[in-house]
Amino acid sequence: NERLLELKTLLSSCKNFPGCKMQAIDFEKDDDTNFHMDFIVAASNLRAENYDIPAADRHKSKLIAGRIIPAIATTTAAIVGLVCLELYKVVQGDKPITAYRNGFINLALPFYAFSEPVPAGKQKYRDKEWTLWDHIDVQGIKPNGEEMTLAEFLDYFKKVHDLEVTFVCHVPQILYATHMRQEVKEKHLSQRLSEIVTTLSKENIKEHVKALKLEIDFRTEEDDVNFPFIFYQFR
Questions:
Q1: CB of 169 within 8 A of CB of 200?
Q2: Which one, out of 64, 80, 185, 213, has a CA that is 20 to 30 A from the CA of 16?
Q3: Count of structural domains within the chain
Q4: Domain that holds residue 35
Q5: Which segments constitute the Ubiquitin-activating enzyme E1 C-terminal domain (predicted)?
């Protein structure tokens, strides 16, 4: 969307000018030059996509936004305001973690408190280090355009990460485990991962889904090593 790209460019440019300060403004849904509805339509439809909710076009979004204005002084509105304050810092970039804040509010008291966020805990195995926010991308489409099989997926982790994978899960389906019956295991090893998921779930993977979120386990000489999630790109 050209209007959203223009808005992003405008916000990003502010950090290059020390005297550039944000000004408080009122929400106005009927002004097509202020980007208010552009942001609401884009953000709400991204959320709808995440939760498989039907998307709303600009006209419907404007009608909905017009009806919720009287509820502006609610806890929800206060939380959104605090989130947006942190979002400004993200857009401006180059901010240390100490610049951000966790917010705690209770409008009934009233009570507002803020604290610095704690860095995400790190896990390490051999020379690899990660947090719960990290994931590993695996390109499941081979150079010939075909999707890799489960056997090739396991071989990928052996060659690239030197890990002997013993368990692969796409919640709630278990795609592979060393304790599986031999005939089931051999069948799965020769199949594509997306094919196994479709068979176990008894439904087709939706067209907009481009990657599968997988969990794996592997043999290790250490205890309690939770490897990052795998984003397996199969489209």
A1: no
A2: 80
A3: 3
A4: 23-69
A5: 100-230
